[in-house]
Amino acid sequence: MKSKETRNLAITAIFIAILIIQTFVPNIGYIRILPTLPAITTIPLTMAVYGSLMGPKYGASFGLIWGLTRLVVAYTQPGDLVSLLLFQNPVISLVPSILAGWLPGLITKQLNNKDIKIKRARYLFSGAVTSLTNTIMVILLATLFFMYDPTLLASHMGQFSQGTPLFVILVVSLGFNGLLEAIFTAVVVPIIVTPLNYVIKRA
């Protein structure tokens, strides 16, 4: 038991180091294409890999760490005004991040005892769900928090006709990023997790 706890602690420390590098080294965790919009983030990949390996409890804790780094970045070095407006809100920073860490572990755990075809697809599925959860929750929470003053956020989201609902603006502006992230994460997670899981089980 002690050996397993030490192994889990070592794995967690490595992933926290990766997360810190992704967060604070430019164009690793956050790849900025359009300067006025939030960056495409590769961090859901790290979330999905860690959660799939370690399970939902560890994954949720790791997601909390991501959410806290989002808050720090929003207050200290926001890359754009939209990120500043969104992620200085603790709920928008923390809730999507925690869910993005918790869900891949839950999905992998629940599908672990299914038939072989489902088992093979579980990492792909957990990767896609991680990215989509993050994007969808950010959109829903932003719509909720800015519903009484949508112009504050909508004015920085591109050229939209007056009266366009904030939810539609967010889906159009953030949805493309979210789709790219989901495809990337879904494809790469099985490639990384399958051999890592094998090594960890043999350790």
UniProtKB/TrEMBL annotation:
Q: Which Gene3D superfamilies match?
A: 1.10.1760.20
Q: Which GO terms describe its molecular function?
A: transmembrane transporter activity
Instruction: Write out the entry's keywords from A to Z.
Output: Membrane, Transmembrane, Transmembrane helix
Q: InterPro entries, per this entry? A: ECF_trnsprt_substrate-spec
TM stretches of this protein:
7-25, 123-146, 166-193
Pfam families to which the protein is assigned, alphabetical: ECF_trnsprt
Q: Which residues form the signal peptide?
A: none
Designated name of the protein: ECF transporter S component
